[in-house]
Design a protein that fits this description.
CATH superfamily of the largest domain in chain A: MetI-like
Largest interface: A-B, 43 and 43 residues
Number of strands of chain B: 9
Radius of gyration of chain A: 26 Å
Shape of chain B: globular
Helix content of chain B: 40-55%
Strand content of chain B: 5-15%
Largest sheet of chain A: 2 strands, antiparallel
Number of helices of chain A: 14
Structural class of chain A: mainly alpha
Radius of gyration of chain B: 26 Å
Oligomer: heterodimer
Number of strands of chain A: 2
Low-confidence stretches of chain B: 1-10, 26-46
Order of helices and strands of chain A: HHEEHHHHHHHHHHHH
Largest sheet of chain B: 4 strands, mixed
Number of helices of chain B: 19
Structural class of chain B: alpha/beta
Distance between the termini of chain B: 68 Å
Mean pLDDT of chain B: 87
Strand order of the largest sheet of chain A: 1-2
Strand content of chain A: under 5%
CATH architecture of the largest domain in chain A: Orthogonal Bundle
Mean pLDDT of chain A: 86
């Protein structure tokens, strides 16, 4: 019985009800078609999401020999090992440092570029939109190799330009101090265009009536950006931060190619650590434990970000 | 009737139940233990009384396909194609499916290829990786296969091993003793005597000082992170200082590398980095041939590389890996990087069919290890054939004499050691030692602390394994 005492419609009575109304037979036919249409996606979900998820979860509490496919349940041994693994905490710290450098700078940079590209008086703004987006479509491998050359201590173009300002050669990728910030810097360059496009779409979605009203009220450009545009761009900001966090904590290709996590693990990230443990040392159970823990950390962080930043009223 | 069937529609509930059942079935199937790896059969196959694995004449084999990966250099890939064609001509019943080895297949990504059944049957391995494979029953013991003794007796016993269980799992294919090579022009320009190359740590550092500065460096030991780096950076200095390749006690229970002599070799390496004698990044081109780096710790491939790629007037000098000033070690021992051939068991086929493939692969492996093919590989790559008659067989000496500085190199090469084979966790130990080396060169720990930390980690690893 429902809360109001009305009988809750059971599935079979729902079917009976539908067949009794005009067009009920057509509805059933459409149900079948709908199920058929959804089936590939459900199958995809089961095979490529749920199954790997289950394997990852079970694998993290098992000893897994990939050659024999034998999984032996060992309990939470891998999680206990994780807590005493200095490399995991180093990787986590590096990932967070990267996150703190890369995500805010990319988003703020993207927003500023979007403001610029949104100026109607800017000549060639369509051309610049393309130019800023170019790094986004560049393959990570190509980008990593090119930046590796640019970062070279003795022959790199970056140190060459810095030398004009009297700066001694900086060992960008060969010192523990600079390796992670250097990768972060490259990724800022890479991601600014992406966030710029997001913010540009958001800015163009703001009603001109709101902006005109603000102008009538006498707000200047700065006030317009701070009090009008940014609050109205809240969904874009939240999306950018959440996705930036997700991507930031999953960074892999660039440190693998540029530093292999070095020097001395200074650019080791959680995903790189997972890869090394799983595929170099064949510790698949332990690698799964790293993966599950990292996923939980990402989930918690992104949820906190959403709770803190998401606004439902303005 | 038809209408009755349709009146029982495939509902959303049915669909979800079916999808759930499929998922659960899939999960159970995936979690079920797989079939045990194929074991060679004593007597089986197409004919019940034929033991294909031990058959003497492979010409009698039914048509068989084996896989082979060419590896590492363009020269070796080209040679591999020629070898494949020549072998197929000798044995038309055996087809060699040759292909260039995918990237990063030393052992890290190889598992995926083994699982997929696409790996090379004749696998190019190294000692410390052999242990990983045979402890997972992936390698076929070789000692009972037809013609084994003929091959085994030609090989230098110092460069080969028989495992503790009495089996031979691999045979050395080429060797590369690590030496210090010098750029003769740089040496002369600095007023140093090319006839008296450094033999002790203090002499080495004197040369380092004289040959560094003004955008040039003395040497370029790699500061990279890969787990296997230690054998190409610190191990030669370790062996030169200690006179031994031993890292683990013979019973495989304890680390034995934390010694005063080992610390001396670490001190030398630390000084090279701390004083800026060592180039710490990869430069475009070859900094050794261009003169930016005066010395290079390298193996025998340097001989062919110099012949092919160095400027015409380049003068290659070869010297020993230096040892501590007060060393009592005789001569100048060094590390010898040896690449082996191992036979990866056929995984997909079973019984006699698997035996046919394994036997055909063994025949191809013997062919690759024949004197003529070892000589061809030597000519193509400069890597030394690991045979007893390297310095007496004209097949090899003619090639050797065609390389710069080869005679001197060959004399040092005799006093060289392969990787310590006292445990099955050699790769993991190498990873720990590489970390200790990184701690040293990045000034996190001094030589004693770095070796002690590595010793503790290795002992923990050995206790677990």
């Amino acid at each position: 019985m429902g809360a109001t005492g009305t009988p809750i419609l059971q599935p079979h009575s729902l079917r009976a009800g539908l067949s009794s109304v005009p067009g009920g037979g057509r509805r059933r036919k459409w149900d079948k078609i709908a199920l058929l249409l959804v089936a590939p996606w459900v199958l995809h979900l089961a095979v490529f999401v749920l199954y790997p998820l289950f394997i990852a979860l079970y694998g993290s509490v098992a000893e897994w020999d990939i050659l024999s496919d034998e999984m032996t349940f060992v309990g939470f041994v891998h999680y206990r090992d994780l807590l005493s693994d200095p490399d995991f905490f180093k990787a986590l710290r590096n990932s967070l440092v990267y996150l703190l450098i890369q995500v805010p700078a990319s988003i703020v940079g993207g927003f500023l570029v979007a403001l610029l590209l949104n100026l109607p008086e800017l000549k060639g703004r369509f051309f610049f939109r393309g130019v800023y987006f170019l790094p986004v479509i560049l393959p990570a491998v190509v980008m990593s190799i090119v930046w590796q050359w640019m970062y070279a201590t003795n022959t790199g173009v970056i140190n060459y330009f810095l030398s004009f300002f009297g700066v001694d050669p900086v060992p960008w990728l060969t010192s523990e101090r600079y390796s992670m910030p250097a990768i972060g810097l490259m990724k800022i360059w890479n991601d600014v265009g992406f966030y710029a496009v997001l913010f540009l779409a958001g800015l163009q979605g703001i009603s001109s009536e709101v902006l005109d009203a603000a102008k009538v009220d006498g707000v200047n450009e700065w006030q317009m950006a701070w009090y009008i545009k940014i609050p109205l761009l809240n969904p874009v900001v939240v999306f950018s931060i959440v996705m930036g966090t997700l991507w930031g904590l999953n960074i892999f290709t660039e440190p693998l190619l540029m530093t292999d996590g070095g020097p001395r693990g200074s650019s080791l990230t959680t995903l790189l650590h997972l890869y090394q443990q799983g595929f170099i040392w064949s510790r698949l159970g332990y690698a799964n434990a790293i993966g599950v823990t990292s996923t939980l950390i990402i989930l918690v962080l992104t949820q906190i970000e959403r709770r803190l930043l998401e606004r439902t009223s303005y | 009737m038809t209408q009755t069937r349709w009146s029982s529609p495939f509902t959303r509930r049915h669909f979800l139940i079916s999808a759930g059942a499929l998922s659960v079935g899939g999960l159970l199937a995936a979690c079920a233990p797989a079939a045990a790896p194929a074991q060679p059969q004593a007597a089986s196959g197409g004919s019940a009384d034929v033991n294909w694995l031990l058959t003497q004449d492979v010409a009698e084999l039914p048509p068989t396909i084996i896989r082979y990966w060419y590896f590492e250099t363009p020269e070796r890939i080209e040679l591999g194609k020629q070898q494949e064609a020549a072998f197929e001509q000798m044995y038309p019943n055996i087809q060699v499916e040759g292909s260039t080895a995918p990237e990063a297949t030393d052992n890290e990504m190889l598992v995926a290829f083994i699982k997929a059944g696409t790996n090379s049957h004749v696998h190019q391995s190294v000692n410390m990786e052999d242990t990983w494979y045979f402890s997972r029953d992936l390698l076929l013991p070789l000692e009972d296969l037809p013609g084994f003794s003929e091959v085994w007796e030609r090989m230098n016993p110092k460069l080969n091993y028989t495992w503790k269980d009495g089996h031979v799992y691999s045979i050395s294919w080429y060797s590369g003793p690590m030496m210090i090579f010098y750029n003769g022009q740089r040496v002369r320009a600095a007023g140093l005597n090319p006839e008296q190359l450094p033999e002790t740590h203090s002499q080495f550092l004197e040369w380092a000082e004289a040959l560094s500065g003004d955008g040039n460096w003395f040497i370029n030991l790699s500061p990279a992170e890969e787990w296997w780096r230690w054998q190409f950076t610190a191990y030669p200095f370790y062996i030169a200082a200690t006179g031994s390749n031993q890292l683990v006690s013979e019973d495989g229970k304890n680390a034995v590398f934390n010694t005063e002599q080992a610390a001396q070799s670490y001190d030398l390496i630390h000084t090279l980095f701390a004083n800026g004698y060592n180039l710490t990044e990869v430069l475009e081109g070859n900094p050794f041939f261009s003169g930016q780096v005066a010395a290079n710790l390298a193996g025998s491939s340097m001989l062919a590389n110099t012949k092919r790629n160095a400027p015409p007037d380049f003068e290659l000098l070869v010297g020993p890996v230096p040892k501590p000033d007060d060393s009592t070690v005789e001569g100048f021992p060094t590390y010898n990087f040896v690449r082996n051939f191992a036979l990866m068991r056929e995984q997909d086929k079973q019984g006699g069919e698997a035996d046919q493939v394994n036997r055909a692969a063994w025949e191809f492996m013997k062919y690759l290890l024949s004197p003529e093919q070892l000589a061809a590989d030597f000519a193509a790559t400069g890597n030394l054939p690991p045979t007893n008659d390297l310095l007496t067989n004209p097949l090899y000496t003619e090639i050797l004499n065609g390389f710069p500085a080869a005679d001197k190199y060959a004399t040092f090469a005799d006093n060289s050691y392969v990787y310590d084979m006292n445990t099955t966790v050699g790769s993991e130990i190498m990873g720990i030692l590489t970390k200790s080396y990184l701690d040293l060169i990045f000034d996190q720990q001094d030589s004693v602390a770095a070796l002690t930390a590595a010793e503790t980690a290795v002992n923990e690893l050995l206790a677990k394994s």
